[in-house]
Amino acid sequence: MNLLLRFADVHRAWLAELAETAPPAYPVMARGGAKSEDLRNHADVIVHRHGAVIACAVITIPGSRRGRARLHLDVQRAAEEPGLREWLAATALGRLYDTHPEITEVEATTAPDEHELIAALADLGFRQQPGERMRKLVYLVGVSLDGRIAGPGDELDFYHVGESLRDFITAEYPETLPGFARQAWGVDGAPNRRFDAAVMGGATYGAGLAQGISSPYPHLRQYVVSSTLSSPDPAVEITGGDVRRLARRLKAERGLDIWLCGGGRLAQQLIAEIDELVLKVYPVVAGAGVPLFGDRFSPAHFTLASARPLADGTVILTYHPAQEIS
Fold it and tell me: What pLDDT band is residue 288 in, cutting at 50, 70 and 90?
């Protein structure tokens, strides 16, 4: 995995201070470096436990690329060593910035099974290179006039899908149709236009699972946030951890945007990570049901980006997070 990131200046002093003290649980076996004519190695860190090397970080500074460094991080049995990846990155990067303040960009590489490094670096103050497009987390969902995304029993049949809405979905968002409906809607085999990953809550996934649908969107990477469910399908990843960390990790990876497809409680947990809100507002009042953003009072402001009325009375509203409210 490869990612180009920029370091936020505000974190430099903190990172350098953090890196100076190794936690007792992570003894450092060696720190050092070597120099050659065109490549300088700095801030090499090797961590051992019971005589065996379990992690290492190597930062290299190519002589031909001013202001840029490379970080390679390798952690064995990361799940057994909570916090090791973050500390290791902080240690190496802190020493780098202490001795080379001219570095403004770091290219991070890691083994495929160590993709959590991206989230760890984000927590340490990194953001993606401005020249590269960051993936968006998009909450796209159907909603009634009174803000319900489903009925009290998760009913959806009171939403009328007219011809104009059908045309809109198949043209703009064909990947939001579940696998079993794609052939009937004429999009079977159609390429993904906007999303290549879907994140959903346990209730949303469980509703399909109860009907025998273990992989509702086989054309997407699927992530289910739940601490109680398990999936019989290896194509579906169940996670019960920090959902905001999951969102940050996915947004930092390369690919199309990420579809947050429900439900309301999960959307409320992720509201600070939502980059775009797309509402299919149906001309119906539900009266009761599942709210768009859960039921906790926590105001978050959005700015209307576009409004597209359809012939069947449905309106497509697109919002972006408000940058500042005066």
Answer: very high
Pairing of strands 236-239, 290-291: unpaired
Q: Which residue has the higher pLDDT, 217 or 122?
A: 217
DSSP letter at 142? E
Q: Would you call the peptide bond into 287 cis, given omega within 30 degrees of 0 as the criterion?
A: no
* DSSP assignment string, 212-237: T-S-S-TTSEEEEE-SS---S-TTEE
Would the pLDDT of 159 be above 50? yes
- Report in angstroms the alpha-carbon separations of 171 from 131, 140, 167, 187: 29, 15, 6, 9
To which H or E segment does residue 160 belong?
Answer: none
Residue 159 in tokens: 């939403």
Q: Which residue has the tokens 């011809």?
A: 163
Helices (H), the chain: 12-19, 84-99, 116-123, 163-172, 179-182, 202-209, 243-252, 264-269
Dig out the tokens for 93 from the structure. Answer: 């990067």
The mean predicted confidence, pLDDT, of the chain is 77
Express as a percent the part of the chain with pLDDT over 70.
Answer: 65
Q: Higher confidence at residue 221 or residue 154?
A: 221
Three-class SS state of 47: strand
Cα–Cα dist 144/163, whole Å: 18
Mean local confidence (pLDDT), 250-272: 90
Is residue 2's pLDDT more than 50? no
Residue 316, both tokens: 């497509």
Report pTM: 0.65
d(CA 191, CA 65): 38
pLDDT for 280: 98
Q: How far apart are CA 283 and CA 165, in angstroms?
A: 12
Q: Which H helix or E strand runs over 111?
A: none
CB 163 within 8 A of CB 301: no
